[in-house]
Structures are given as structure tokens and as C-alpha cells.
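Pipeline run #58 for the internal structure catalog. This entry was flagged by the ingest filter as a single-chain record with no existing model, so it goes straight to prediction. Upstream metadata was stripped on purpose; only the residue string is passed forward. Reviewer on rotation: M.T. Logging verbosity set to normal.
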Amino acid sequence: MKIQGEAVLLGDNINTDFIISGRYKFSITDMKELAKHIMEDIDPEFPKKLKPGISVIVAGENFGMGSSREQAPLVIKESGIAAVVAKSFARIFYRNGFNIGLPLIQADTSKIKEKDALLIDLDNSYLTVEANGRSPLRLNIQPLSPVMQKLLADGGIVNHLNKHQGKLEL
């Protein structure tokens, strides 16, 4: 599986309340409406920077820390973000992301710049970074297990189980 996109940079310790503020937790239940507020406490213009199906969030350490609310990865996916690449992820967020079919990629993100073109090759565990004026950079990514790759290919655990009559198929 390959994912192409454009980098949208964030920093370290992006918590679930930064992704989607807790003040919307019960007042907005429609994911399309909720997605309009993604990252608004960090950057109110963030949704306008996104190119659905193309934007890839690139962050530092501990992305998704905080509560176990599933709204955070759901809002990212609903916003049309193709993947999240970070140095590390909070454990519960990581699990929730794969459960809904959101690609979460661990790599050294320190050399990726805003709007760099990215090609993520999940089958071969690397990320290519291209930008004007710089030589292409190839970064290793943490390999994904066959189960994780299958969940992504099927669009998450629920879709996978529906597709395979309730069985986890590799």
C-alpha cells in the first residue's frame, strides 16, 4: 500500500483536546461538522490548510496523548487527512487509529518541512520526502504488521470483520 501526500506540520505532544476540543464532545455529534473544528485551539485556520485525500499530518513525539476518545482519530479521518506521520504515538490513540483505518506511521520527522511531497510505502517500510531545491530523502518507517496492513486496506476493524464474516483474516 502506498500513500502520497503533502506535509502539514505540527509539533510534539499534540493531545486529543488539541485535535478536537473537548468543548465539542457532546454538543456536536456529526463528524463532518466536528471536523470543521480540527486543531482549532492550535491554529484556527488549520482546516483551510488541508487538501482532502492529500494532506498528511507530520508531527513530533507523543501524537494523540490524552483521553481515549475515539473522536480524535475519527475527526482526522473525516477531515480527509491521508495519514499521520510522527516520531511516536500515544498507545490508545495508535490503537484507535488502526481500528478506524487511519494510517499512523512512525518515523523520524525532523527533516520534513511544511508542504514537502511525501510518498509512504507501507509494503517496503519507507517514506520518500521530496521538496523543491532539495535532493529526495528516503526515511525508514516502523514496519506495520500484516494485521495492521490488512486493517488499513479494509478501512478499519469493523469493515474488516464485516468483510470476513466476523473473523480476523490475514
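catalog note: The CA atoms of residues 70 and 111 lie 30 Å apart.
catalog note: Helices lie at 16-19, 31-35, 46-49, 71-78, 91-99, 146-154, 157-163.
status: ready for reviewer M.T.
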